[in-house]
Design a protein that fits this description.
single chain; 255 residues; globular
Length: 255
Amino acid sequence: MRPSKGVQNAALLFVIHRSKISADSMPTVQNVHSIHYDLHRLVIWMILAGALVTSVGLSISVWAEYQRIGVEVFFRRADLLGDYIYSPLAYVYNMSLISAGSCILLAMYGLYQLKLGDFSHYLSLSGSWVGLSIILIGVFPINYLYEHRLVSTSFLIGTFVLHLLTITTRINHKEICSKPLFILAVLGFISASGLIYQLDWSLLDFKPCPHGKIEICWVSLNMWFQTNVTMLWCVLLALNVRKLAINNAKLQPSE
């Protein structure tokens, strides 16, 4: 038995209505996989890969030096590991710094692309300053003493400004600065302040550390701490960028 014309029309209207509902729900799915989110996802994975390579490189350099002088490696300035004369794996350490700087630059690029306002732009610019300084420290290790002092001082001032802006961001833009990132920024700010206080500005360098077996070099320990804080800051920011990128992609219209 053939259905009546009214039944056919009702079925047709139902199909059209279902298609309209599906079309309305598609932008959300498309936006999650849009080019905007894909860009940030690529940046985030490259950041994490850079952080992993950096950790491996630093661990190899420290372990090789630990086999030679033991725990004293942590009481010596970290930049001595980049000395091509002093350290047998200096090239590994310096390449790790270049990778770490690239990691931070990528994180700042992702943050800048989110376009969360002028304040986030200031944060991304200061972060780029820090990333570029780390790259230059790897390019100009302590063998190039004059250039090394300049870029190391640039890194120190850059981290001071970066952590200060991060702390301020927690007040103005909590979506950018999570609580763990805020705590890390406070620790980094204290560490950077201590290093700035200990810096000899006439030489752009620190006073030589004693190398006795029992002597503890607080400048060296602080430098190691600042290096680790900066890398963790980069990773935590990358995770925040991922979360914000997903939210922004869902809000944008489909293309």
